[in-house]
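dude i think i finally got it to work??
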Amino acid sequence: MKLRPPTREERQLALLWGVVAASALVLRPFWLAVAPLMPACPFRAITGIPCPTCGTTHAAVALMHGRLGAALAANPLATLAGVAFFAGGLAAPLWAALRWPVPDVPAPLPRWLRAVIVAAVIANWAWLVL
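look at this
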């Protein structure tokens, strides 16, 4: 994959990513207070089968309490996405400030990468169903 200098817009987006991640951490007490008020999954209530995002709230709350294992058990894909979001939120502003090169990702994403994403969602759903 080729590397290129980040554009001004990409640097701004990286800084915004950092602000959003930091804001989510600052608002942690609010998220923990609101989480119990979240409604049950309507798809699961109707069908008895968990939807692909079932367990995301439980995973987020477990992550906020530092319980990685419980978060992974609740929803592995949501846990990995949450960890990646916060890791990126920490790294992206630094990366942008230092103007380090970024990968030149083609649009649309390559077919193999789209297949991996679909497979990850299906595997995650299978984990939740079984």
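The chain is about 70% helix and 5% strand.
im so relieved honestly
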